[in-house]
Design a protein that fits this description.
By secondary structure, this protein is of the alpha/beta class. It has a single domain, classed as TIM Barrel, CATH 3.20.20. Helices cover 41% and strands 17% of the residues. The protein is built from eleven helices and ten strands. Helix 3 crosses helix 4. The chain is globular and about 50 Å long. Bound molecules: indole-3-glycerol phosphate (IGP). Indole-3-glycerol phosphate binds next to strand 10 and helix 10. Indole-3-glycerol phosphate (IGP) binds next to strand 10 and helix 10.
Amino acid sequence: MTILDEILQEKEKEVSQLKTTYKPGQYQASYEKRSMYDTFMTSETMNIIAEIKRASPSKGIINEGVNPAEQAKQYESYGAGVISVLTDTPFFKGTMEDLQAVREVVKLPILNKDFVIDEIQIDRAKDYGASVILLIAAALPKARLAELYAYAQENDLEVLFEVHNEEELAVAKEIGANIIGINNRNLKTFEVDLAVTERLATQIDTNEILLISESGFRTADDVERIKQSGVKGILVGETMMRSGDLQQTFSELSVRL
Ligand SMILES: O=P(O)(O)OC[C@@H](O)[C@@H](O)c1c[nH]c2ccccc12
């Protein structure tokens, strides 16, 4: 069984619990709506989705003691375009309370980073103040992905549709995803390779589709390399969480497009 299978098995349990305990509409966070698609498509510098990530299955503990609100405020002040908050608890040590705490202190759009398999998680993301959700092509059959994509749209949420290979990219296109994230990390083997973005990007019309490259970014050279592929945004977790000087990290990664 791959790690993704394990995570999805846990998610099934979490979701069936959630269905008995969570009433959609409970929180209704108030926040200003901004479209990630519109801002990223028109920006002249590389857009950064900065992630709050305490731990991961591939790296173990990264920064367990982080204060999500303080970290997010710094991300916002140094120029992040979106803040990603990992809310999976068993494998990433995140919580919905982390997202809530971030929502209270920043104006930026928030990506609720989790393994979405059911509508109720989308309701919850919206209630807590997320404006973008993640759908992972490898996690579900195409028909189910299409339903969840439509449900997010009906709820005014943007979708970062994550792919890792040609078949998944074909699904993204069939569903009509306008924001595609190419994950450089293989969720089954953890191998990270920026060449995955370079290979798949050739099959994407980046004038129409907002292309995001996810995982493995450390240096300005990494970003310079990937921007040639038409990438307009990068998703950065570990490098942000381990940075001793976030201002410096942001100025290095925010290359001109
Ligand atoms: O820490 P990194 O290598 O910068 O990666 C961030 C992000 O791309 C990664 O956390 C991620 C991408 N897709 C995911 C799906 C689920 C959980 C996590 C992820």
